Structure formats: structure tokens, C-alpha cells
Amino acid sequence: MISIRDKIRTWYYIVKYQYVFRKAFFGKNSVIKCKLSIKGPGKIMIGENCCFDTDPWGNGYVTLYTHLKKARINIGNNVTLRATRFGSHLKITVRDNSLIESASVFDSDFHNVDYENRDKDFNQNDRKVTIGQGAYVGCESLCSKGSELGSNVVMLPVSVTGTKSFPDNSKIGGFPARILRET
Amino acid sequence: MNKLEKFLLDPVTAISLIFALIRGCLIKLKYRVINKNIKIGSSLRAYSGLIIKGPGKVIIGDKVSFDLSFLRISSIITHTENSVVRIGNASYLGGIRISCVDSVTIGDDVLMGSTTVMDSDIIPGRLTKIDEQWINSNVKAVKIGSHVWTGANSFVLRGSVLHDEAVLGSGSVLREKEVAEKMLMVGNPARKISGTKNQ
Questions:
Q1: Residues of chain B with a CB closer than 8 angstroms to some CB in chain A
Q2: pTM
Q3: Domain-wise residue ranges, chain B
């Protein structure tokens, strides 16, 4: 089912980021169908059977950026990422079987509010982000710092989580996100 | 006014229109060869490319123009064989993105700038099985009337209805709501602001 172009692309990115730069560690059978960009000093762990894809309309690419040496991005098994943007200072965890559309996942504010220290102490108030098992994050939405999605949460498109946590099996949406239906 | 006089008055738009018509002819020819489910009307004006994917039906009317907007190429994706996308005559769609499971209907003389139209909460991926239960819980058809204007970066999500001459502001998100005739709605989630006629 995987085309030759995708196979070559997968080999290229695994050799580039796992063996040459030593930034990311890929599990078995992961497929990369789009451009992938990994930057920064942190470490990235990717599970088995993952799929990196463009967004459904065929543009955009996956970016996994870490800004500090302690930063970690852990991605579980069977995860599909469609043109997702990650920015990490501390820790981002994506559990198994989840699907993330062309959304942004950040675990930091990145800059200080004060003008004079804007670029100096930027590792204040970082909070971990977890995305639970089988969760779905809709397109153009934002998982901001401290957000915790339980398992099987459906996050509607164009919604923004604050620093909140959401229970299992709920449907959330809006700006800021609130629970629309709990089952 | 004569056609030649029009050409001499504004040659740049005239030449770009000619190029768009030529590109439209090529796109029409391409999809006639590749996919029988895609039907495109006469004089398609493609100022940029047009991407149509999937097994469903796509019916595009006459004199429809597709344009580039925010560097987005307009693209239409259908997910099942029963899904139908209908686009009326003489509408201008700049950088539109349509994802269709059940049905998306767009009327005549519509102006849409870089709008995302989806009729399902979840865009089906490689692991989702599309059966009746999934469709009942996640999908609802989208209807857009004629003479509608939706602003840049707006989202028309599942179950939303825009009646004739309605306006949706830029950056707003509409989901499971109706916009009445000649009304303006704005925000996330969208709410009523005013009518479209000055009185």
C-alpha cells in the first residue's frame, strides 16, 4: 500500500534524524508521507506504526521543535499526525491511537511578558501537555500549556484549550474550550 | 461597450482571465480523463490550480472561478462513494477547502475567501471505519444558499446552514447553526450582529 516515494522519504528522514543528527528515535513500521522538520537540542521518541501525513487537503508539514536540552516529545504507537506543529520546552506526551490534525501543541509561553526580559528567562511556568489514548484534535486548534486531554476526547476544529484538563470520552470545543457533551 | 474596448481599458485583468480560461480547460480535460464522477460546467476560470480527490461525486456549475488565497490552493476532498459536492453557477471561490462525507451544497453567485467547509467533526483517517453508526454520530450535511459571502479564514462546520444573501465574518466559526436571510454573523462560536441592509 505504501508507495515507493513514501518508502524512500521514510528512509531518508530516519537516516537523517536518527543516525546522523541523533535527535529522534523512530519505532518500527512508521511511515512519513510528508516533509518532516525536527530542530532543537531536545529528544524525541516516536512509537511503532506511526504515520506522518500532510493535512487532508494535501499541504503543510509536520514540525517537531524542542527549544531546551531537557525538552521531550513522546509519541505513542499507531498515532497519526497530519501537518501538526509541536513546540516543546518541557514535555509533550501523545498516547496511543490518537489522531492530530493540522493543530498546534505547545507546552510553554515561549517568552516573558516583561519587555526587558523577553528573551532571557523563557523557561518560567512551563507545564506538561498530555493527549490521551484515542483522542482526536481537530484542525487549526491549539493545545496550549498545561492542557490534559483524557482518553477518547474529541476536540472540535478551531478550538483552544486553556490550562485545563478534560475528562475521558468528552466532546470539547470553542474558544476557550468547554465540555459540550459528556458520555 | 465593445469587447476590444474593454480589453484596451484593462489589459492585465483581461490577459489573466484568458490564462485562467485556458488553465480551466486543461483542468476540465484532466478530470474528464481521470474521474467520471467529476462534472465541471462550461468556462471554468482557474486562476490557480484545483485539487479534487476521493471517490465521491463533484458537480461544478458554469463560470465558476477558483483562486489562490493565503497561498492556499482550492481543494475538494470526498471520503465515501455516496458523498456529493455541488457548486452553483458564477461563484467565486478563493482558496476554499472542502471535506465531504455526506453532502456539501453551495448555491449560485457565492463569494468565499479561504473558507474551510467540513460536514463532519472528525475527518476520517486511515484507522477510522466509516459505517452507519459513525455517520449518524458525526456527520450532518452543510448547505450554503446563493449570494452568500463568507470572509477570510472562516470555518463552516457540520450541520450549519447559510440562507440566501447571508454574510459570515472573517475568522468566525459556524457549527450546527443557521444564518437567516440577509443577516450577518461573527465570532467563535458565531452569533448575530446585524442585518446586511443599511436602513
A1: 51, 53, 72-73, 75, 77, 97, 99, 116, 118, 121-123, 125-127, 155, 157, 173, 175, 188-189
A2: 0.87
A3: 3-195
